[in-house]
Structure formats: C-alpha cells, structure tokens
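I'll show one example:
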Amino acid sequence: MSSSPSLQWLSLVGTIWLQAINGANSDFPVYSSQFKQLLSISQIQLNNLSFASDAGKLFGWFSGLAATYLSLRLVLLIGAAFSFIGYGVQFLFLANKISNLKYWQVFLLTSLAGNGICWINTVCYLICIRNFSLESPVAVGISTSYVGLSAKLYTALVDSIFHPEHDQKAKAYLLLNAVCPVLVASVVSPMLRVADSRKDTRSNGAFVLMFVIAIATGTCSVLGSIRSASSGIWSREHMISLGVLLIAPVMVPVFAKFREGIENKKENRVYDFTIDEVGGEDRVVVAVRKNEGDDDGEVKEQIGCRLMLRKINFWLYFFSYMFSATLGMVFLNNLGQITESRGLSHTSSLVSLSSSFGFFGRLLPSIIDFYVGKRGLKISRPGLMATTMAPIAGAFFLLLNSSSLILYASTAIIGACSGAITSVAVSATTELFGTKHFAMNHNIIVTNIPIGSFLFGYMAAILYQKEGGSNSCFGADCYNKTFIIWGSVCSLGTSLCVILYVRNRRSRSMVSDIETNPDEMMISYSSC
C-alpha cells in the first residue's frame, strides 16, 4: 500500500475519467426511436430494452462480492469487458456483420452491458473511499459528478467524429459505447492504487482546484448543449475544449508530485514519529472526528447486508430512492418518445441538457460538503436527498403544460436533482450502514433502479399505447396521465425521505449522548 499523496490524487483522476465514460446507457434516448424502427418492436418492447440496461444492476452485488476477493484492477477490466461484449455485438448486428439477432438476445446483451457499469462504479467508489477516508464524500462526489457528462460526451463524440445521418445514429453510439470503456479502463488501470490516507491541510487547495476544473467543464458542457444545433465546426471545437478540460485534473497529482520532490527531506523529519507518538496522534484525531459527527461513519456500527435488510431505515431509503432519482432516470430514458410525441426533433440537445445539468447536480453536494466540513459542520445525507426530491415532483406536474420551454426547464431540473440524489446516495449508504460492507450494501440498494425502471417504465408504455392506439402517439396527452402519477409518486418518496431524516437524526443524537465521555472513545478506538 502506497502513502504518496500524488498517487492518491492520480487515482482520483483515474476514477474521474472512468466515470466520464461509464454512463453509456444514458445516451439510449437519442437513438431509441431509430432502434424501435430497426427492430420493428412496440413501445412496450422498447421500454423493456430501456429496463434491460437497468436490469443488469440486479446482479450488481456480484461486483461487490468480487471486489472482496479480486484486485480492483481485475474488477475494472471485467466491467469494461461486459460493456464491450454487450454493446459490441449489437453494433455488429446493425452493421450487418451478424445476420440475425433476436429480441431476447438484444435484451440479454443490454443487461450485460448495464451490469458492467456496476463493476466500474464499484471500483471508483472503493478507490475514493479508501484513498480519502477523511474526505470521502467530497472525493466520491467529484468522481461521480463526471458520470453526468457521459451522455453529453458521447453525443459530442458522435457529432464531431461521425456526423451521422438520423438513421445511422444507433450504430455510431453503440460503437462508442462498446469501445470507450475498454480503452479508458486499459489506460486508467495502472493509475488505480490504494494509498494510506492522511489528513493534509494542503489537500484543501487541491480540492479547490478540482472544483474549479469541474465547474469549467460543466460550463463548457452547458454552452455546448445550448448551441448543439450549430455547425459541425463548432462541434469539433467544443469536443476539443471538452477534451482539454477532462485532461486538466491531471495537473493536481503532477503538482503534488512536484511538491513531494521539493519537500521530501522536510516531510521525513516531520513524520519521523515514534510508535507511541503516532498512536497518541491517532487517538486525538478519532476524538475530534467523533465530536464533529463522524463524517464517514467508520467508528459507528458496521452493518452487513443481512442485518441491513431487516432495518426500517433501509426500506425507507430504498423506496425514497426509487420514487425520486430512479423515477427521474425513467423520465430521461423516455425522453426520446416524449420529444417525438410533442413534435420536436431535438432529442440530442435535450439529452445533452439533462446530462450537463446532471453533472452540476452531482457536483454541488460535494462542494457543499467541502465548505461545510471546513467549518466543523455536517449536513445530513437523507435531509439533503429530501431537499432535492421535491423539485422533481414539481417538474413532473409542470410537464402537464405542453410548452417547449417548460419541457427544457423540467428536463434540466429533473437531470440536476436526479444527479444530486445519485451522488449523495453513495455517502448516505456509508452514513446509514457504515463503510466496511459498502460494496455489497450499495449494490443491493441500487437494485431499486431496475425494479423502478420496469414498473414505472412499463406503466408509461401502456398509457402511451393506450392514448395513441398504436405503436406511435402524438400530442401532449400521450404522457399527461403518466406525469400526474410520477409527480404523485415522487411526492410520496419525498415524504418517506423526510421520515428517514427524522429517524436518522434521532439515532445520531442518541449515539452522540453516549459518546460524550472521552475515555469511552479511547476504549472504543483501542478495541478496533
């Protein structure tokens, strides 16, 4: 295990690049209408393909189990291989390299690719949590925010490289979805190392630089989304600028390495402690962290998956997540059909818009965590999740208005808030159930995504076909009943999350009362 700060930051940069290409399933709405025509399938069958990508998460816990026994690099490459096979075979079919591919085979291939996303996510989460144990919510937030750019990144690559006609988009997207994860995973794999995490006040400056780069990247993405209907020349320029900003985070480990070289002798003197001195320092740190609320929950009860399933907090968390962020993902999966039903043709610009705002939604919680943490305070994850759920419910009701402006605004709101909940959920899992069994626990929690995707997506498809009377429906009425149901369900999810927040706050208060005696903290630490 390495203790070099530069390797910590290099690993974080590696997870950023992985997350940037790990949302390949988010570009499905762009080519879903074409896929529907090519395969000659109904709206319900198309919805099932959208669900198939999420269905892979039902078996995401395999990646958590594998991470317990295999190296993280091997887990990463397995996930990339699943994506390559899942999307690659579909591309070969559309390119007429495979003569026949049945619907159920397409379903299984899409599920395999969706499962690959879980493997890559597991690696990224564990690297951030282990390398930045004292600031894991911030590190995880920065890393996961970049998955919000995936749809935008793939759209920009397709437009700038292939310039496809409308009936050729599916091939271009499937090719990139298959190739990009394998290429990036192969490059990034040597960068991923678990390093000893040590609190360093100079890491504050590194995080600030990361935030500046991330905000610049998101701003570039939003501007590109607004001007997505411009010429191909702008698209190439936009792709170049976005590429430069994605490479920019590597400056942080480079600066850290340069600083290590200059201060190597000084650091050797500063950290040349005796065993007793190191032990004394660690005990002080634990005492301070516990008084500050135990940001990572590492010294609290570590709950395994079996015990977790028996807790009321788990089910409140599970269903509030399903009734909010998962519902937002279902909306985004249906964005192609929603756009088509309203007579609009700019599906790619809407997908890019949701992706760009999803990026900022995922990034904002980590910025809040960073600046609030510097003041010794802590924001409850369930409370933050409840706050971001309410706007999603409001956006669904706004969509009852057929205005194009409302569609764009609601898409941005749902993209941003769904992204924020997804990012906060990683830290919420550790806050509620501890870090020891995180890989298994969180992969169990995200099984709500395929379940919700199927239930809400299937319901939307039935109502769509009922309104249209065939495989196609046109007019605002196609999704009005769906939006009313979704808005009501999301309101229920917000209420459940508020209950979770109240319960968790009470339990934390009880733990805080028990831990007021410093001697008890020392005994608790010594027994670990």
User: Anything to note?
Assistant: Residues 229-233, 273-299, 518-528 have pLDDT under 50 and may be disordered. DSSP finds 24 helices and no strands in the chain.
